[in-house]
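dumping the sequnces here before i forget
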Amino acid sequence: MKIEELPRSDAVLAVDVMGADGGVETVIEGCVRARAAGLRAHLKLYGREDEVRTVLEGRDLTGCTVEHAEDVVTMDDKPTRAVRHGKNSSMWAAIGAVKAGKAGGVVSSGNTGALMAMSVLQLRMIEGVDRPAITATWPTVKGQTVVLDVGANVEASAEQLVQFAIMGEAYYAALKGKERPTVGLLNVGEEEAKGHALIREAARILREADPDMDFRGFVEGDDISGGEVDVVVTDGFTGNIALKAAEGTARMIGGWMRQALMTDMRSKAGAFLLGPALQHLKSRMNPSSANGAPLLGLGGLVVKSHGGADADGVASALQIAEDLAVHPFQEQIRSTIAEVNARLAAKDDAANEAAE
Amino acid sequence: MKIEELPRSDAVLAVDVMGADGGVETVIEGCVRARAAGLRAHLKLYGREDEVRTVLEGRDLTGCTVEHAEDVVTMDDKPTRAVRHGKNSSMWAAIGAVKAGKAGGVVSSGNTGALMAMSVLQLRMIEGVDRPAITATWPTVKGQTVVLDVGANVEASAEQLVQFAIMGEAYYAALKGKERPTVGLLNVGEEEAKGHALIREAARILREADPDMDFRGFVEGDDISGGEVDVVVTDGFTGNIALKAAEGTARMIGGWMRQALMTDMRSKAGAFLLGPALQHLKSRMNPSSANGAPLLGLGGLVVKSHGGADADGVASALQIAEDLAVHPFQEQIRSTIAEVNARLAAKDDAANEAAE
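..and the predicted 3d for all of it:
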């Protein structure tokens, strides 16, 4: 793409190149790889111009512009502080591009709490959505499952869980092109009577208010990697702990496997023969391939790339952002939330009238 | 051991042989293997006498008596129903043996909810403990970590989390012979300000009320298999979901590994060479080796064996029960809880006096 061609804003991505664990280098190398793999969006790179230009030198990254921002939000910055003092940061400026209609989405590898706080402030929430939710794309025996919330909110009301379900459903449909994704609520048992009152209330509201959803009721912790449903809904406390418990287990088993393959000459020979099969196994266990998760519920597209992601991970996040930027899923969330809230309000009115 | 030798009650285990997924056969085979591996306790086998005798025939199980019980609590029975109508069940009778001082502990593979309800009713709670907690022994890169609660209670107050910490500490010390196990509270971050108000309150109380405990503050989901602390404390909702999410992940990776080893002739040859190393890996990933978890906080020792455990798993649960039955850890829980409650009450009094 030539710089002169003015791209449509939804074909522009604002990239916060600062704040990743691997530095500017990792993010820009991710941009290069995404481009090589077919990414078409114009990229606006937000960061310290001199650093960015140095890294760009010698790299073949067409269709990008550099937007200077003096400050950097660090991983240690408190979200409140970042919002108060971070107006000159690359993160704030990149989100601002989406607000101003100059980009269809923003991708950042920086501090999640700060990204969320700055996004809420600049992009606002979709009407009827209380708080954003962070999604995780979880590998399963059948493919991938989207889990949300995995850490944006430590608590969630029944109504918020319902909002998460609606947002997760629309996101999964956009991500996978599946028309009616299946949705489950994470619980300690599948029976109706299990779990908190709050989670049972969420199930009740969902059944009443969104009859179009393919809601499968409760699912358990092992149903996530079992791929029982496409979308798993939970509060950010439980979701974050479940996700990290699973990641920790995968890491532990990966370590054990490496040990097993290096035990002695015999096992090393076996590992050599297994080479290609192990390579495939390794790629299945590689978190990079699923990196990039939108913060759902905001008035614009914000995609979080894992701070520790490598260049391939960043490339994955950019591709997801491009796919989502041209997809009407934000609009779908907006309309479904409005419909559901209207239906719930009508029911409330009817109940009030009956009571009078 | 000859049947004639009257064993001390703490050297007697009451075994509910009904209710396991694998039937009476699995439980009794588990008893045989435990005995072969060095279990010394006298075993009272509770169940339908004719069934038990049939399975015992031809098996070499010394030092056991059969105690007839007509009824069986099934996996589908609601705890309330089991308690109301299950007085003739093997589960009720086996717990009764502990209550009557005829056994030092009970081992059951049956319905967890029913086991808990029946145990609370017959054995009561340790004074100062509100509700029992179910423990899980979680494999880690460093060994094993005890996690509790993993499902007895869907909610837990700050005070209950403190009780779980005290019980888990005493249990870990008994299980591993470590004098001052490290204890952590499961949270979404390690910083003081992270998580629910409730969990921060629990951390505060623990620091104040049990200064002897080696309390390490908050730990995250991946710190469990990372082996960051010996005892991880959480509510039963979060603990159950984290445990099952991790189990599901391990199962998924195990399946992928089996596929990788069977891809083609080359990988099969590699798998053959890797044989012994893989055997070791498999045993590390085998849940049987850690089967058997006490319900903590009760007025007597109740060990739950996983319903789906194989004979080796049952044998593991029996050995854990024997080890715990002769250990004064129940007494330690009782005294620490009493001390901590006295200290908290004194602080309350002082605060009230200051306020007056």
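The first strand of chain A starts at residue 12 and ends at 16.
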